[in-house]
Structure formats: structure tokens, C-alpha cells
Amino acid sequence: MKKAIVIGSGPAGISAALYLKRSNIDVTVISKGIGALEKAEKIENFYGTEALSGTELYERGIESAKKLGIEFIKEQAVSIDFDENFKPVIETDKNSYKADAVLLAMGVSRKSQNIKGLKEFEGKGVSYCAVCDAFFYRNKDVAVLGNGEYALHEASVLAQTSKSVTILSNGLDMETEIPENIKYINKKIISVNGENTVQSVTFDDSEVFETSGIFVALGIAGSVDLARKIGIEVADNKIIVNENMQTNIPSIFAAGDCIGGLLQVSKAVSDGARAGLAMINFLKN
Ligand SMILES: Cc1cc2nc3c(=O)[nH]c(=O)nc-3n(C[C@H](O)[C@H](O)[C@H](O)COP(=O)(O)OP(=O)(O)OC[C@H]3O[C@@H](n4cnc5c(N)ncnc54)[C@H](O)[C@@H]3O)c2cc1C
Predict the structure, then answer these.
(1) Under 8 Å between Cβ of 258 and 224
(2) What is the pLDDT of residues 64-109, one digit of tens each?
(3) Residue 37's closest CA among 58, 16, 8, 23?
(4) Is the pLDDT score of 112 beyond 80?
(5) Rounded Cα distance, 223 and 238, in Å
């Protein structure tokens, strides 16, 4: 039986999963829990519902999916790759899962760090994808900006080829244990410095830390972070899809806030439905 994996249990992910399940596709939803709806105090513009909180709407969605028998796995996706048959493999903080088709429905990332120089050095020492750019930093000292499982994953990828890897948590405590081959500094960062490319960062105690590259892995990996790892087309921090919600890699679809447009529940549900139907078509043919 063909296997579909949906990453994200918001309106887009659940909508797609409902269509897939009702068409007898083996579907699993991997999610770390509620997404954008957590911050929505009151929703009163969604068809057929009285005013309700985002959390209530989310819980209703999960309940309806569970009633249909959709399987949920509460884990954090940290990477995506392909096996020898070019089937997608999703890596989470705990396991890896193979699928025949994958839907990225992880919403938009609202994480950001207002560090002087970080934006200016994008592509000149500041990278957002370890697996894409590790090659350029082989035998060099590099840093990863972040403090969770995603930062650790990116640091572990870099540790295979770089001279040294240091996680810079920018004043935050680490949420995960760090292996011995990776260093860790939790001082606040004031600026990223360099001439044409990154050469160092300055901490709030004026110490200057030399590094050839900074890999940004803040919070948890978003849809766009995963997309970048496998060469999915991205523009303006949004995943590019065709009218069937299919990316430039045929087995990978994307829906909801992560593809841009109207950032509303109604549009996420519609995207999810279209993605679910297109995935059914893809898997059955
Ligand atoms: C404050 C606020 C108020 C809003 N008010 C309204 C409103 O009144 N009406 C309206 O229509 N819309 C409203 N919205 C917008 C609405 O919440 C979003 O458009 C909608 O939730 C998008 O759905 P989605 O499925 O694309 O993403 P999300 O709902 O964000 O779901 C993303 C899912 O992906 C999961 N995820 C993310 N990263 C990972 C990872 N690495 N591993 C595993 N899982 C992951 C999350 O846990 C979540 O389950 C509001 C949004 C905000 C922030």
C-alpha cells in the first residue's frame, strides 16, 4: 500500500489527511502540536462555526481526523532526504519515516533574530541549510545559531566535515543535550562581522568569536527550511507549488501558510483539500 505523510496538523495538514484517508490511502500526520492557531484568540470568520478560539478550532480538526482513524505521531521534523529509490525520508528528532508522497503543511515560521549583520551576510557566510552548504565550510570553523533539536541536527551535519562546530544559543538555554564534538556558547550576540564574508561575531561582553560561517537554525524547522534541503523551489520564504500544490519535486506537495497568499484558515483548508486530492492522484497512478 502506498504511504502518504503529512507534516503539520494545522488546517492545511488535517484537511489533506481527511481526503487521503477517505480515499483509503495509508496516511500518517507528523506534528509537534498546534501551530498558528495557538495565538488566535477568537476566530469568527470561518464558515459554519460560531466564534471560537484557535485552540478550540484546532482540537475540533484533530478530533475529526482521529475519528476517521488517521494516525498521529507527535515528533518534530528536522530534515528530509531521499532513499536509494528516490522515495522521501523524513527525519524527526526521534525517528525516520519513509513515504511515497509527502505534504509540507508546517505553516510559516515567525521566528527571527534581530542581530546586526545577520541579514546583510546572507549568502556570504550566513546560511539556512547545513546539508546544502556544509561542503563550502569543510575544514573550517563554523557556528550554528539556535538552541533546540533543529540546531543540534544542523550542527551534527556540519560536524562531519567542518574543523569545529559551535552552537551559539544567543543567551538562551539549550533545550537538548550536546555531544562532545560540538561546542556551545550561550552569550548574547551583538553583531555578525566581516569584510565581504562572515569572519566573526561579537558577544555582549565584547568578546569576539571567530567563525567562517553561521548556520541559522532557530526554533524548529519550518516548511521552507525542509524544502531548501532537497532543492525545492522557494521564493520570498514561500514554497513554490503548481495548481495541484505540487512542488518541483513530484512526490513533495505543500499547502497552507507556507505557500503564501491569504494567511487564513479558509485558504489553508482549501489548499489542503487540493493537495490531498492531487496526492491521491499521484499515489494511485
Ligand atoms: C494571532 C493570529 C490570529 C489569527 N486569526 C485568524 C482568524 O481570525 N481567522 C483566520 O482564518 N485565520 C487566522 N489566523 C491565521 C491562521 O491561524 C493560519 O492561516 C492557519 O492556521 C494556517 O494553517 P496551516 O495549516 O498552514 O499552518 P499552522 O496552523 O501554522 O499549522 C502548522 C502545523 O505544522 C506543525 N509543525 C511546524 N513545524 C513542524 C516541525 N518541524 N515538525 C513537526 N510539525 C511541525 C505545527 O505544529 C502545526 O501543527 C491567525 C493567525 C495568528 C497568528
Answers:
(1) yes
(2) 999 999 999 999 999 999 999 999 999 999 999 999 999 999 998 7
(3) 58
(4) no
(5) 9
Q: Is the dihedral of CA 248, 92, 255, 2 positive or negative?
A: positive
Distance between CA atoms of residues 188 and 199, nearest Å? 17
To 10 degrees, what angle do helices 265-284 and 11-22 make?
30
User: What single letter denotes the amino acid at residue 83?
Assistant: D
Q: Indicate the top mutation candidate among 229, 257, 262, 267 to test ligand 1's pocket, ranked by most ligand atoms within 8 A of CB.
A: 257
- 3-110+221-284 to CATH, choices 2.60.40.740, 3.40.50.1980, 3.30.930.10, 3.50.50.60: 3.50.50.60
Ligand 1: residues whose CB is within 6 Å? 7-13, 30-33, 35-37, 39-40, 43, 45-46, 54, 76-77, 105-107, 220-222, 256-257, 263-266, 268
Do residues 133 and 148 make contact, with C-beta atoms less than 8 angstroms apart?
Answer: no
| Whole-angstrom Cα Rg for the chain | 20
Q: What is the pTM of this model?
A: 0.89
pLDDT tens for each residue of 166-216 = 999 999 999 999 999 999 999 999 999 999 999 999 999 999 999 999 999
